[in-house]
Specification:
Strand content: 35-45%
Number of helices: 5
Shape: rod-shaped
Number of strands: 10
Largest sheet: 10 strands, antiparallel, barrel
Strand order of the largest sheet: 1-2-3-4-5-6-7-8-9-10
């Protein structure tokens, strides 16, 4: 009986001692694990090397190595190759026989090189895109500085640049077709007062120079083929062609233009009506004048101008000659690239003669089209 109790007691003592040693080992290894966790948290390769070097002679060092390698594998999963390589080097330095660590370092090194090249390529593409965007901005900035005056002049207001779709233009053009060109011809000497019907064409073009000067041209051609008079004093055909170069200085006014050009008047005469001999037949003349364009009257724009016809200096029976014009532009539609407007214009040309006055006044109704300023 006593022997049996002695055996049981001995077994309990052995079990107690063994259990105490197992718990002591677990607590010791767990403490080292916590130190390793802290090294990986702060990413301190020096502290990790100290922890490993202090325990290289420990019989449980293989557990410490396995735990460290597990932590390194987690870094590889999240692509944190920098500290993964440093931690692997620490393992190799403390145990050159750790073939798994050596192989792991080779794998990490290859993966890190691939990642580095990929990131370098992404950065290169990003820099190229930034350079392209900057070049586009510089180009747009240059266009704005070059064309701002033209845009404000033609729009008559402020300019708003809202993005890539916005484009400022440095030129402006307008063409008009007058389906109604009604002219009244009055000649005091020949006692002529007649109405004539025809068509007209009008065109203008303007370009803003880099030095803020605006150059342009005006061209007009009007012809009357039909008359409403019943007597033989009727003048069969009347033509008027006007071409002028013009310039504007926006520093002075963006609506005032100075003009120089040439004017031609062609008038048919009736062979059966001697009184028509007093009407000016062919008249060629240089012109000098001024013109105010696009004077805003709400949505309506007004043009008004006057020219001196210097050709009278070469005509014996004409003391003076001049021309005047006015046009009211009423917009009614705007498309993507052009806008349409209705025009009501008045043109007058008079000749002061030795024997009286000749006057040609016409009313023109036209449909106009011009480019849209962006």
């Amino acid at each position: 009986m006593f022997c049996r109790k002695l055996k049981v007691l001995s077994a309990l003592l052995l079990l107690t001692v063994f259990s105490a040693r197992v718990f002591a080992v677990e607590e010791y290894v767990s403490d080292i694990y916590r130190q390793i966790d802290n090294c990986f948290t702060v990413k301190d390769e020096g502290k990790l090397n100290d922890v490993l070097s202090k325990n290289t002679k420990d019989k449980y060092y293989y557990l410490i190595e396995n735990y460290t390698q597990k932590k390194i594998r987690r870094l590889i999963v999240v692509n944190d190759y920098d500290f993964a390589m440093e931690a692997t080097l620490a393992l190799i330095e403390n145990n050159l026989d750790n073939e798994e660590a050596v192989e792991m370092y080779s794998v990490i090194s290859d993966a890190y090189e691939i990642q580095r090249k990929h990131e370098a390529e992404l950065e290169h593409q990003r820099q190229l895109e930034l350079a392209r965007i900057e070049a586009e901005k510089e180009k747009q900035r240059g266009n704005v500085e070059k064309e701002y005056v033209s845009a404000t002049k033609t729009s008559g207001g402020a300019v708003y640049v809202s993005g890539k779709e916005t484009k400022l233009t440095s030129y402006n053009w307008k063409a008009s077709l007058g389906m109604i060109n009604l002219l009244h011809l009055f000649d005091k000497q020949g006692d002529i007062s007649s109405l004539h019907y025809g068509v007209a064409l009008d065109f203008r073009y303007e370009y803003t120079m880099e030095n803020k000067m605006v150059l342009g041209t005006d061209a007009f051609a009007g012809f009357q083929f039909l008359g409403f008079a019943e007597d033989e004093k009727l003048v069969p055909m009347i033509g008027d062609i006007d071409f002028a170069l013009k310039a504007s200085f926006p520093q002075v006014s963006n609506k005032l233009f100075f003009r120089m050009g040439f004017d031609t008047v062609v008038t048919g005469k009736s062979d059966t009506a001697p009184d028509t001999d007093s009407v000016v037949g062919m008249f060629y003349s240089p012109t000098i004048g001024v013109k105010m364009e696009r004077i805003p009257l709400g949505a309506v724009k007004l043009d008004i101008g006057a020219d001196w016809l210097a050709g009278h200096l070469f005509m014996k029976d004409i003391k003076a000659a001049a021309a005047a014009s006015m046009n009211v532009e009423i917009p009614f539609a705007e498309l993507e690239k052009v806008k349409l407007n209705f025009n009501i214009g008045v043109r007058d040309k008079f000749f002061l003669k030795n024997e009286g006055l000749e006057n040609r006044a016409s009313v023109i109704m036209a449909i106009g089209v011009e480019n849209v300023i962006r």
